[in-house]
């Protein structure tokens, strides 16, 4: 069961069965045609932050901020814990297998939290991997066009 919060106001529960039954066809990169109750819907992912599970989606002519929480996120919320408030991330690893489409930083660059680091294509979706913190890029372990496995080391911070 997933929970989706739209525009920080509206909460929706989405189960896996409903998600699998969605009649959606990708028409081009990050653009979809959806049929729902015999109505045609055009959807486009304008921005995605895979690590934070936040997306900016345009449905027909309306734009929505969507935050998704999986079962683990919901359990952590129920326990009253905050994820990683004092944790210092030193390595960026691939969240899934995919192809490195673009690298936006170089070794020695200073980055701020949420700055884009690279784009990982997985399952025909472009996922922007953003910086989890401020820091300096120590090393980049991948090259553009390289295929990576899940948990492959991509970038190290100083």
From TrEMBL:
Classification via CDD domains: biotinyl_domain
Keywords, in A-Z order: Biotin
Domain annotation Lipoyl-binding: ranges: 80-158
Stretches assigned to coiled coil: none
SUPFAM superfamilies to which the protein is assigned, alphabetical: Single hybrid motif
UniProt-listed Pfam families: Biotin_lipoyl
InterPro entries referenced in this protein's UniProt entry, alphabetically: Biotin_BS, Biotin_Carboxyl_Carrier/Decarb, Biotin_lipoyl, Single_hybrid_motif
Name of the protein this chain belongs to: Acetyl-CoA carboxylase biotin carboxyl carrier protein subunit
């Amino acid at each position: 069961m997933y929970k989706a919060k739209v525009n920080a106001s509206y909460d929706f529960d989405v189960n896996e069965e409903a998600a699998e039954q969605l009649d959606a066809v990708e028409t081009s990169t990050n653009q979809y045609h959806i049929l729902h109750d015999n109505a045609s819907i055009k959807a486009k992912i304008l921005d995605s932050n895979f690590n934070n599970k936040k997306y900016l989606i345009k449905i027909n002519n309306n734009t929505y901020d969507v935050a998704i929480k999986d079962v683990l996120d919901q359990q952590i919320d129920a326990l009253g814990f905050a994820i990683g408030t004092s944790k210092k991330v030193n390595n960026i690893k691939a969240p899934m297998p995919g192809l490195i489409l673009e690298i936006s930083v170089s070794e020695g660059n200073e980055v701020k939290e949420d700055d884009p680091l690279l784009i990982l294509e997985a399952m025909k979706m472009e996922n922007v991997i953003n910086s989890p913190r401020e820091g300096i890029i120590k090393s980049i372990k991948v090259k553009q066009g390289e295929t990576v496995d899940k948990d492959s080391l991509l970038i190290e911070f100083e």
